[in-house]
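In practice, a research group might receive sequence data for several interacting partners and want a quick structural hypothesis before committing to experiments. The following worked case mirrors that situation: the sequences arrive first, and a predicted assembly follows.
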Amino acid sequence: MAAEKTKGILVVGGGISGITTAVEAAEVGYEVTLIEKNPYLGGRVAQLNKYFPKLCPPNCGLEINYRRIKSNPRVKIYTSAEVEKVSGAEGDFDVTVKLNPRYVNENCTACRACVDVCPIERPNDFNFGMDKTKAIYLPHDFAFPMRYVIDDKVCKKAECAKCVDACKYNAIDLNMKTQSLSLKAGSIVWATGWKPYDAKKIDNLGFGKYQNVITNMMMERLASQNGPTKGNIIRPSDGKEVSRVAFVQCAGSRDENHLPYCSYICCLASMKQATYVREQYPQAQIFIFYIDVRSPGTRYEKFYKKIQQDENIKFIKGKVAKIEEDPATKDIIVTAEDTQTLQKIHEKVDLVVLAAGMAPSTQESKIPSSVSYDTDGFITSNTGVAGMSAAGCAVKPIDVYSSAQTAAAAALKSIQSLVRR
Amino acid sequence: MAEAKVINPDLDFVKEIINSGGESLKKCFQCSTCTVVCNVTPEDRPFPRKEMIYAQWGLKDKLLNNPDIWLCHNCDDCTKYCPRGAKPGDVLAVMRKKSIEENAVPGFMGKIVTEPKMTLAALAIPFILFLAVLGLTGHLGIPDGDIVYSKFFPIRYIEVIFISAVILAGISYLSSLSRFWNNISKGSSQPYSKGFFPALIETLVEFLKHSRFGKCEANAGRKNGHLLVFYAFAGLAITTIWITIYYYLPEPYKKHSPISLADPMKWLANISALALLAGTLLIVFNRLKNKGYEYRNSSFDWTFAGMILLLGVTGALTEIIRLMGVSSIAYPMYFVHLLFVFYVIAYFPYSKLAHMGYRTLAIAYSKMANRDIAV
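A structural hypothesis for the assembly, expressed as tokens:
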């Protein structure tokens, strides 16, 4: 049987695409190694509050996938791990993986005793810096693996070591070192995903300058029960409730000065986030400023129609290109031309959400292999290397639904790559 | 049933704009970033987004009846922030050229002067005219003795040629401007918020301070160059009238050419000439400078900057070489300088210099029609 000659599949990236690829291939009967840079799986999806258009929580789907991983002995996971080197060819790749120290071993029960004694704080990158964690922290409430981790950039290690004493389970090892792992793979799937475009680069939209201008991913965290405000959508400047919120579409996307392409998900995401606000504040007024609303497919079009029915949500055709702050109240004034009435409008709001686009993770840090990229920095769909495929937002900006489809396709392609010789 | 609105696109007009330097026009996708980042656009029916779609659709009438293209100061804030590289700043500059060309009386002059390829032909006219006048009156040689330009080109000939050129150009310019005014004001249904003269005076005061120009951000460097050239032309215009008065004063007050360097008229003339040179150089260097975004000056813009630079350089050389006493170069230089003076004066209704009247009227109109901005 062919499977005896194969060396299994390496999946790089433990977000929804990587997890799906790994589980699909393993359930067919192939050995899969899943590598994730963060200390937890789930990627960007783990940061979302709700999916569009069904408005259901993503943790549900993630939990199902984690369960499929746990019950399948063919999936091997490495978190806090990065691929350093790839050599060889289809059917016989040699891969070097760097395993970054977590400083917390499998004994951890997530009891929190360590956190209570840890004296050092760090900005919580999972919540985009909107709150803090201790130097030893649980990445988030639904983290998988459910295990603490130490941020060695801030931890004082042996000098402090209070956590080591507090831990009853002998789970903390401050002497853990970076390790190198060599493994063989017959085929590789790159599911390296995306990161939010750095909205500070859009100098006319005030992000980073005005506290009450946030990004759409920050809004997901603000609205999440496990987010920095326990799900309360409040103004970062003063914690006040919001009554007028503006969504600025194409903040960076479809703009040759930033991301020249459409990020595909932002229109639906903003409409979804409008429902977050409307649910919490029944009187709130929402303004969605857009170039054109892109709601591809019947399900999304239906969702758009539904949102349009809401009298408190106003769609304005015209891009916001100027954002100012009233220094006294920290209110934000957004300016656009309503291109349907030919009038400039200045809307004073409590909170502005920039629909910042999706940049490929590979835009700045290339993967250590000779795969080919398109002009925007995404991996081309055939990767240009035999035995390698790519899935999810590593290839183009797409929604979770389509990511899962590309993941299934990548699983099939990598199986074919093992079997066909 | 609602009446169908028929749009008749003028495709040749679209091609003309594209060929004159507006090739980025079709990239515009109407997001309206431009109208928001523009600091000189009104709140009501702001430009340049609507002009971009008028131009894409070939709605020539809408553009030529539109004063807004003249409210634009080519700050390029729109071009810098345009997400598509559609360069509204460049496209509106080309529209202004088309506006000058279309409103020109007589029309063929508009075609000759606004077309950069015809520049040599435009200069050939004064060249032949001057040669003919000098030849017929026996003045084609280099005169002996001290360099006095009126020995070579007698003032009465200059007066006949240039005063008739000014009168012809003036009549033509007034006809062009009144055609333009009719175009921009005919669609207006609203009552004006102020009269023409108060609006005009406000506009002229703004020009003296260049306050509207000062609102530019991306291309802020243009203001100082333009300000210098503006005052240089004002100074040179005063000088020209002043010297004419000197020539016609009764003896013993009458002054003869060349006027002493110590004369206040000469001071003004020389300071203005320096300002003209400095201003034009500033404009040219500013155009060549990398501003961190892509833009393009049309060849129409470059032709005019080149002409003004040559006017300034030949003017300065004419004076310097005269003071050095090299008559074999001084007289020919004077001749060349007069060609550029002729170009600037006789062709101003059709060259970029025509913008002063169009812009004045457009801004005055925006004040009357309650579409003014705070400057």
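Before designing any experiment, note the following. Chain A has a mean pLDDT of 96. Chain A touches chain B through 20 residues (CB under 8 Å).
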